[in-house]
Amino acid sequence: MIPKVIIHNSISLDGSTTGFEANIEIHYKILSSFQPDAMIVGSNTAKTGTQFFCEKIPPEEESDFKKPEIQPDDPRAYWLIADSKGILEGLMHVFRRSEFSKDAIVLVSERTPEAYINYLKERNYDFILTGADRVNIRQALEIANEKYGFELVVSDSGGVLNSILLEHGLVEEISLILTPEIVGKKGTNLFRTLEKNGTRLELFRDEIVEKQYVHLMYRVLKE
Length: 223
Prior knowledge:
Helices cover 25% and strands 27% of the residues.
């Protein structure tokens, strides 16, 4: 069984995910209202996001090699981080220390460097291995549901991963926070790598937030 997947993102008026200052407080307040079991994010987005957690990457400590003790009533979500190339080697402790997640589970493929797999094992990170050259997202989500009981996963990522999720028909809903700003030609389109045409949506919620932001919720219509 595949968990319900919601894409959540803050965009400019012209559909860019970069080139403007998103309201992080509103972004994560709305995201947390979904009460997801896990958030899925691509490795590039995760690497960029380390700047929000610390100005400088701190050295690892002994505690970073141990799984955190998780209480049954902990409301935080896990992070599913797709990283088949191992670009987060040396950075994973930043996410493990975050107050916003229970712990990180890494999605890897058969082509993931062995050194990175060993890095994860030595630090007791759970990882899900699927796919040959890159992560098989559908299979990874199925395993996440079977192994961890995840029923709702929210994508808080960039255009590449979001496009893959849509391309494979895994997305049920799209949540967008519209920011009153136009980026122009230097913008980065939310679904810039999507090859599939004609994805039809149905608006089922619209709300003005703090007088200037608009939260839109769409249902992805099945073909």
